[in-house]
Amino acid sequence: MNEYKCKSTALSLTLEWPVLAQCLSWRPGNPLPHPFSPFWFTVEPQDTLAIRGNSALLNCSAHSDTATPARIEWKKDGTFMSLVSDERRNILPDGSLFFTHVIHSKHNKPDEGTYQCVATIDTLGSISSRTARLSVAGIPRFTSQPSPASVHLGDSHVMACEVNTDLVPFTRWEKDRQQPELGARLIQLPNGALVISNASEADAGLYRCAVEPVGSSNFNLDRVSLLLPETGEERKLEFLAQPVSVTKLIGASVLLPCVVTGFPSPRIRWSLGDKPQELTFVQHDAYLCFFLLSMSQITLLFSLDPTAPPQFVKRPSNIYAHETMDIIFECEVSGSPAPTVKWVKNGDAVIPSDYFKIIEHNLQVLGLVKSDEGFYQCLAENDAGNIQSSAQLIILDYGVDGPAGPTPSAPRDVVASLVSTRFIKLTWRQPAEPHGDELTYSVFYSQEGTSRERVVNTSRPGEMQVTIQNLMPDTKYRFRVTAHNSNGQGESSATLKVATQAEVQVPGPAPNLQAVANTPTSVSLSWDKPLTGNGEILTYKLFYTDRGRARDEDVDVDGQSYTMTGLKKNTEYSFRVVANNKHGPGVSTDDIVVRTLSDVPSAPPQNLTLEVQNSKGIMLRWQPPPLSGQNGEITSYKIRYRKGSRRSESAVITAGTQLSKLIDGLEPGTEYSFRVSATTVNGTGPATDWTTAETFESDLDESRVPDQPSSLHVRPLVNSIVASWTPPENQDIVVRGYTISYGIGSPHAQTIKVDYKQRYFTIENLDPSSHYVITLKAFNNVGEGIPVYESAITRPQSDPIDPDVDLYELFHAPYTPVPDPSPMMPPVGVQASVVSHDAIKVTWADNLLPKNQKITDNRYYTVRWKTNIPANAKVKAANSTSLSHLVTGLKPNTQYEFSVMVTKGRRFSTWSMTAVGTTLETSPSSAPKDVTVVSKENKPRTIIVNWQPPSEANGKITGYIIYYSTDVNAVVHDWVIEPVVGNRLTHQIQELTVDTVYYFKIQARNSKGMGPMSEAVQFRTPKSKFKTRADVKFPSGFDLDLSLLSENHLLVIIIIIAVGVFTIIVVVVGAFLCTRRTTSHQKKKRAASKSSNGSHKYKGNAKDLKPPDLWIHHERLELKPMDKSPEPNPVMTETPILRTSQDITPADSGLESNPHLQQRRNSYRGQSYPKERPKKLLFRKINQSEMSPLQPARLCIITPSIRLEFFWHTGNRIFYTLTKEGV
């Protein structure tokens, strides 16, 4: 038996409470206090799913060291069950509750509910177990019948088992009456469905979902699955099984289905926010399951909420105590969500009162009485479960033996020297017979009408006064005082009755305070008149504050309602009301919290940046609007973008938690503008300004390693070296980072890799006065490129201190992140922003300036720039006293390199990292050079024009235009045009007139417009040695066969029959003459005749030209059989040439009313042609439907009664119609 040594010096002992309690009652020769009795549950009931009509069992068993076994009783839904005459439900010897058969129907569910077992030992008390839920499953019911399914090889398939949810745990699958082995390819989902991944021929068969309750019934669901071969045709992506938001215990397993079908087979990835995840979840958050197929992506957002059942951090402990004492049972629990705690004493709930108080999960019992003895339990519960822990309270009796010596008599003259509303101060005199010098005192007090007495002890010996705190106003109390000496407690004084004062009748709290948000900026409040108070309520003071402020604001209100306006949107406000009467302000109400309504965002997203990923994709990143401008929860972001300066826009919507988006499927080498706006449930807020970026013309190459970095600069310090560099000149190769190697005498001692965006790095922890070799290499996924070498000697340790540097850094340490006695640090963050075709703005930052980057001294900056063209690598420079400089007078479409240095007095920095910028394009400012014209051998009517590009192209040349005429002084629109596409520097012109002087000019063109024309170059075509039929060329395919004419064209047959042979000859000759009327030979003659009414000519061969819409130059047409359609000419599609209004005037319109125009069309200006037999022309009859897309092109009047019309078809076919008057 343990012995407790107790020094009885009044009550000021410093032992642990259980030991202290025993010391207070133990005397030599007396037995020790009654020990605590072990009493706990060995088995507690668990949640159970029972089957209707079957048996069920809820386990419960308790342990105790007492001779009397515990009596087990059961509660259902908080009420004790009466099981005396119940034949269906009974308690087993170990305390478990057994159901012989469970009853459950739609309208009668007597067994379903929450159960709890209570163990009782009469001499000790009672304890209650955790609660358990008994659920009853109904009869299996399949909600739908299956149908045969066909699955492509390699695809995924989901077979649902659509049975009532409470029976899902009892489902299992069979294939061909055999249970398949579940694994990586065959998975049964939590809802009972079976997933087959990467289907093979072995998976085909008869599948059955069987539900097997405890009974003998077996319900099944059959499904036939067939395998189909993959055809290779693309199939749309679709979800077969989608993940849903789920709540799981921490540490538990969770299966999140994400099954997708489609062809080609999609790739499924999981991510948490923007980060890929391997699904080990430990916190609440939103997850993404998304899959990719080619350039398409579909995303599904869901959440996984991990939960944790309650756990005890600190359990309540057994306590010894005496009557009148105050005790605290401590109980600390954790869990997610936060558990709720309640206390139970001997199986009954503890109801908070003046003597039983629950404070932060702890139970405080004030003024103990003997009936407080027993078992106290702390029960914690949340959605994940519930737990309980018990502790025993034993009330000790004072020693039964008499004191060892005389004890003090009763204290004298106990009076209340000070009485207030909440406290009373008692004083007294020493007992008449103290029997000792150092007396201590105990004051016992209780509220009148109760037997529960509390005690307060004096703090030091000899003290004869005490203040009793925390009393109730206007309440009567009883007090008595006892003295203690070394022998024990003495006699009690007579009872003193004292009433606390009534509080000044200021108003009490206003009841029923309510607050309702009306609009995003207003809240309506109302309250009732206080129940207590002396006199009329004069005013109410309404206090309010938003949750981010520490100080209240207030407003005076005369009535019992008020509408607060001018509040912040979607902000939590706290309100309380204080009533005022003639005595002053009363008791405040409790705070009531209300949030103003949300609204559309009033500010756009912040920090929108664009990062070109490749030739078809641009990555957008942004930050949410400022909190003051969000006005609610951001539910989504809307991205609008457009191509170039087009007005039509496309839109993409992202989740409210997503702050980046890759816009793909764009066109290469194209400028796009983007803006982003935030959306709440109320609508979409303002958008950011348009931000532009241009996709790459082609994707970067990663089939080879990067080139050598274009420069490497090092700056040695005492213990470090600062390295800065510029990227490789060939930026068409992917660079994923840089490798820095360094060492004393050799660069192979240490290696560091940095990001591809980084342009400088500080190598630290170096030795002073040492020679270091540094190499820099760019690398990508293929490997590392060629290194560039530099060497540097670190400065000696005893380097003299520059006072201008060190004193500044000593006293301005917060603004100098790189304190260094070396030369000044170069500017950082140099950027070149293109402004126009001849201007670029250069900006930078200075780390030696304060954080606000304000220049307060005489430092200035020097900006230097040069082109990347070796022949023009002249360096120019300019000074600036600010952190930016606009460089003007630059060449268009030219890449420039910029760097900056800072100078302060005699000190200056090295040049900064290089920034690169390319000026915008503009139209060519010079004409093509070295224009020459030569004739083609043996072809006097064909010449070849050669030239060189303009010196100042100002952009990529997209084409040239050749002008030629026989009159050098003719106006520009009378010159014949020959377009040339691309960067070709030679062109062939045919069908010129022999022995004729021609003049040639050339004009260059880029994406911004046309440049100036070159000087005219004169050339005379050679003379022809003879004139034969070869000199008169017919359009290829022009083949008029009269025999076929009689067979294929009904109209010609009628003409032959009606008019005869003579009319046919006239028609053929007329057709030939009309066709030849506008040959190139005649066109050259008309150009040479300086016709004042000639229109702007347009010429090109079949390879370079698409015929104009309405006017056709027939000398350039090639007549072919009607069942063939020539390919559309790509030249005119890419480089259309604008013409004057004369060029596009329809040939048919105004013909009769414009004799002058008719004269131009029918006059050959006296030119004669050899009478040659025309080539055959093949005719066929066309349908009426083919007439709709025809456009009139040319009308030839052969005779007053015969017309030959030409039509141009939108499919590049030529149609001729021959009409005789009246036919």
UniProtKB/TrEMBL annotation:
It holds the Pfam family Neogenin_C. This is Neogenin 1a. The keyword Lipid metabolism does not apply. GO terms for biological process: cell-cell adhesion. The lineage of its organism: Eukaryota, Metazoa, Chordata, Craniata, Vertebrata. It is a single-pass type I membrane protein. PROSITE patterns: FN3, IG_LIKE. The gene is NEO1. Keywords: Disulfide bond, Glycoprotein, Immunoglobulin domain, Membrane, Repeat, Transmembrane, Transmembrane helix. It is found in: Membrane. PANTHER family: NEOGENIN, PROTEIN SIDEKICK. Belongs to the immunoglobulin superfamily. DCC family. InterPro entries: FN3_dom, FN3_sf, Ig-like_dom, Ig-like_dom_sf, Ig-like_fold, Ig_I-set, Ig_sub, Ig_sub2. The chain crosses the membrane at residues 1050-1075. Residues 38-135, 140-225, 310-394 form the Ig-like domain. Residues 1080-1105, 1144-1174 are annotated as: Disordered. Residues 410-503, 509-599, 604-698, 705-798, 826-922, 927-1024 form the Fibronectin type-III domain. GO terms for cellular component: membrane. CDD domains: FN3, IgI_1_Neogenin_like. It comes from Nothobranchius furzeri.
